[in-house]
Amino acid sequence: MDFTMPVWLKHKFLLVIILAILMTGSGFFQLYAAEITINKVSSKIVNDIYVVNANLEYELGEKTTEALENGIPLTFYIEIEFEQPRKLIWNKEIVRHVHYMQLEHHPLSDQYVLTNLTTSDQFSFNSLNDALAKLGKISKLPITEKKNIEPDQRLIGRIRTGLDIESLPPPMRLQAWLSSEWRASSGWHEWVVQP
Amino acid sequence: MINSKHSFVLTVFVFVLMLATLVFMSNAINNSEDFSNLYSLLLVINAIGLLILIYLIGRNIKRLLEQLKENRPGSRLTLRLVTTFILLAIIPLLIVYWFSTDFIRRGIDNWFDVRIEKALTDSLELSKESLGLRMRELLKTTENMAEDLTESSQSDISISALNLSDLQGEINTTVMNTLDLDTSKLDNLRVRNGAEELVVLSRKGKIIASSSAGTDIVPNIPGKSTLLQLRQGRNYIGLEPIRDAGLFIRAVVKIPNNNLDNKTRMLQALYPISTHINELAENVQAAYAEYQELAYLRKPLQLSFTMTLTLVLLFSIFSAVLAAFHSARKLTSPIQDLAEGTRRISQGDYGKQLTVSSSDDLGFLVKSFNQMSLKIAAAQHELDSQRTYLQAVLGKLSSGVLTFDANLNLKTANASASQILETDLNAYLGGTIDDIPENQIKLFTLFESIKPQLLHHSDDWQEQIVLFGASGRQVLMCRGTALDSSSGEEGHVIVFDDITALIQGQKDAAWSEVARRLAHEIKNPLTPIQLSAERLRHKYLSKMKTKDADTLDRLTNTIIQQVGTMKDMVNTFSDYARPSQIKPEPLNVNPMIEEVSTLYQQLGHKVKLELDLEKNLPLIEADHNRLRQILNNLLKNAIEATEEVATPEIHLQTKTIHTSGRELIEIRIIDNGTGFPEDLISEIFEPYVTTKSSGTGLGLAIVKKIVEEHGGMVLVENNEDQGGRVVIRLPVEIENNNVHSINEAKNKLPRKNAL
User: What is the pTM of this model?
Assistant: First the structure.
């Protein structure tokens, strides 16, 4: 039987080169990659307001730490959604809330300053780990009022967090988009919202 | 597929969009607040824009390559123009690009200087040192305050009246209940030592009590590492930037543990820094941070600027390439139109008008072309009308007209020529004189006869040519003349007429004259001869002896008989010579044939007569008696021809035929007799041409005369197997003109000694 090589295979060499370039560019072989994990998340109603508690774990990689030490403020987003599950099609979004936290280094005091961009609250830390620990502790983050949700509605909450590349200085963005370390995200984590 | 108009609109749209996004991108890189948020989007839009431009260029290149492959007019000029335009645009662009990237690299590198960096670092260090001195003093002060607090720990202290609900840290109210500190003592300590805020904390960092100069600043709990440091016995002193309030010094010390509950507590004090020092320190910090950020962004900045510049370069090059294609097409379009126009004219499509799209030299050329095209069209129209006129004249001519070019190719033939030669000559137009197939006997014979004249005669010539075809012998009178170059084109014109009928008419008229004279000359003496013989017989027969009487009787009888025979002959001659006296009336031929055949069958001939008559045969205008005479004559001939045949058969057929747009009836008398001698066929209808030993020899001549008087024609042919046939064709609508013309032709002949 006559065997014909698929067209894409004929360009295998080219394909390998392109993949290699993409992987190198995107920091695929990065040794110290950033890692963001969601350890625990829950929600409850406090004073007729849905609030979220979460325990997130941030670990910065080589590049992100270097940028931070060199005066580049890092902005983290914490995206929380309440959805109504539906069969066959995608879930219906009920509430969406994005919370931004900014971390920067203060060279004179050698402090790490964490700023809640929603409330403008600011916290200073001696060490980066303290700052990251504080960043990962989400406590009673208000999402929506109870009256906004229909009673007895089954809700799925989902959360994800990561570095907000669009908040970086423009010259860094293209590189950041191509780097897995900068694009690091926890991915969606779901839980059942208790009424 | 998008057409060129859409393509142009798309190009302009992409051009404007990309130009705008490049301006925005350039602003975004310079940290403009308006566009920095859109930077990534702008980058994507630019990339898409470039891809669209590449697609458009690809399309243009593909189209140009196709045109080159097809050798389309103007394609090579387009290629040359496009190449020139592109080279003219790209070379300066590349030079500018090379210098610009170099300037960017050098420019950004020049922002950084080791000395400035050193100065900034030193300034920062100096600030730190200067603040460090103050910090050490304040640590001492705080430690003293902690000792003061230890001493007064036995006293009752009430809780500070802070608005605890505002606290961000977790406050354990149970702890507060177990320890009561005197607020005034804490306030006193704070005011005395110039602190902004004093906080007593538990071992785990929970707030027990606090005193603050204002409510703006929320007490912060020290971080885990600070608490750890304290638990290890080392006090903490550090600078802390507070939002909108500048730098503060935070000191956290352990309160010496000599109280009753044996619990470790900590005192945190927040000291303000003088406004001036604060300002200076902030300036140093800001400058250092900015420089540090800039230094860190050096490479990305260079990359971004280079990328933006590259995008600008690519955009410029692609735009230039597209513009080159557009301009080249715009320039070559009139040339292509002109080429197309000339091609159309060369193919005979005259009068093609091109759109004048510009008023420049090319526009002038197009205008000239349009004028030329109109003139050619007008000339062609005139030529066509002249040709049509000439063709109409030739078509109406009764003479056949043929023209040949110098190579003896048949150029024109009029309708009469085709009609006379019974061939559609249009099929042979353009062919040479030698291309005529031999089975086209008439045409072949004619061309073979005139060929020597065409080849050798340069003057006018005239020749009578006899042709033989299906309808018999045909005599043509050909006149030819050679055309020389002064007539426009070399060649020959041949005009010919079918003079068969004329010659026949002349011949018939001559025979009629002979017959008439014979009748006249012979008939007159016959009656006296007969009368004299009868008188002789009457007078002397009775007086003579028997032997002499018998001789006289025999001789006079012979004279009387022969005179009678001669009278019959003379009457036949008179018949033949008599001018037409037919009395036409509508007649159906079929009943007459049936009637005549019945008569012959009744006479007891052994011949087998078979009729094959077409039903619904149209009526003809004919003289009943004359037609019956023809049928009698022909049937008699046929019977005589089949006398020696074992099984004599005669078929009588009638049918309707159409030739040359005329409706005719055809009567065929077919026998299986001896047939006609081949050498006599062509003149069988002439008087005294006969195959029989007896008779006047005028039978078929009279048949022909009567048929022609009816506007018909008669011909004889031999059957393929045995016997012969006589075919009579009579028009359904008799053309009186024909009858008259034949009679006139005969009347024109000199008539001497008329009866």
Answer: 0.53
